[in-house]
Amino acid sequence: MKSIDTRCVHAGYHPGKGEPRQLPIVQSTTFKYDTSEQMARLFDLEDSGYFYTRLQNPTSDSVAAQICDLEGGVGAVLTSSGQAANLMACLNICRAGDHIIAANNIYGGTFNLLGTTLKQFGIDITFIDPHAGEDEIRAAFRPGTKLLFGETLSNPGVEVLDLEKWARIAHECGVPLVIDNTFATPVLCRPFEWGADIVTHSTTKYIDGQGVSVGGAVVDSGNFPWDRHADKFPGLTTPDESYHGLTYTKKFGKAAYITKVVTHLMRDLGCTQSPQNAFYLHLGLQTLHLRIRRHSESALKVATWLKNRPEVAWVHYPGLEGDRSHELAAKYLPDGCSGVMCLGLKGGRAYDERFLDALRLITIETHVADCHTCVLHPASHTHRQLTDEQLRAAGIAPDLIRLSIGLEAPEDIIEDLEQALGKASEIPLLP
Ligand SMILES: *Cc1c(COP(=O)(O)O)cnc(C)c1O
After folding, report:
1. Per-residue pLDDT tens over the stretch 395-411
2. Would you say domain 289-424 falls under CATH 1.10.443.10?
3. Which end of the chain is more exposed for a tag (fewer CB within 10 A), N or C?
């Protein structure tokens, strides 16, 4: 297998003689056939081929294949957003009456999806401290538990998940481990190598890298033995009447799970990526290996600088020696920990606001993980309706500032932070 750098550039699209060197955007909803029989075979899943872009499109498929190659899976599908990717990953094997166990430090959007919306669908959820002992996590399992969910690098806390430990627990309990690998990207960590079964992405972040297109992906390792736990996963292991009684595991083997995402969930729910946005992702993927290493290097420089500043109460960045996730990062993220960090300042909320307002190069955005350095203070922005106590209950320190280091020169980022800290310090620090 070629190195990941080469695969970022080449995987997924292999033009033949006289075909476009660049990935073509197939801007077509539908595809032409000559006989009724040809079309019928597609609908019976007897032949593979394109018929409607809600299910599959050649541009999107090339990009899905590119991400699949980087992650080392057997199949992948692009989705309209990262939210849709996590929704598809769960709904593909969970139905009303089932149960999910997820790390309690995951992205707020996923926390709401699992904790509120899927709950309203009748799928129950237990959030668990990812650092809890194995016995404690195992004790959360029920007969109806269908998957274990976590993030390689949590958003916004940037804690590293102990992937091997979580995979071991999931497999002992007969369920797949689903990992949201958004911040790490497959360049920094490939969760399948540590036992994860399904990987999801918000491609909106580093894979796009320029902040131009919302998207997601679901990738299947092909490793989970669905038939060994057939009673738990009837959607994969018993006949699907909406496809004339075919059984996914029998017909598609290792690709059963991902085929069902396309042929069942995309058909019925339509959370499809557009060919145009898939093309933007392809551009991003071709430089992902260069960018994510630079993001990581710059973030380590900035985090090291921040840690030594008197105005800074704390910094979490797994690349920092002594960080709560440093040991796990050394194991799972040896090539870098992405550009995202979080920090708290000593001065209190008014100080935080003065600091944010004084930034010039660094912009205030709800976005994260692209080429522009940006910052967000959940207590004053995304979570501003909550009291400090409610924030803590939601796992967000009221003073937490999320800083996403872009591709500018790290010296310029540090200079901006320095002048903003100076301006904010014109009001006295709290003792
Ligand atoms: C942003 C994000 C999502 C949601 O992705 P969207 O593309 O915004 O829908 C999911 N998981 C993580 C870790 C994220 O950072």
Report:
1. 788 899 999 999 999 99
2. no
3. C
Q: Whose CA is nearest to atom 2 of ligand 1?
A: 202
120-155 pLDDT per residue, tens: 999 999 999 999 999 999 999 999 999 999 999 999
Exposure string for 113-144, b = 16+ CB within 10 A, e = fewer: bbbeebeeeebbbbbbebbeeeeebeebbeee
Ligand 1 site residues, Cβ closer than 6 angstroms: 81-83, 107, 109-110, 151, 155, 180, 182, 202, 204-205, 214, 216
Fold of 4-284: Aspartate Aminotransferase; domain 2 (3.40.640)
Q: Tell me the whole-structure pTM to 2 decimals.
A: 0.96
CATH 3.40.640.10 in the chain, residues?
4-284
Taking the CA of residue 106 as reference, the ligand 1 atom at the shortest distance is 13
> Could you tell me where in the chain the CATH 3.90.1150.10 domains are found?
289-424
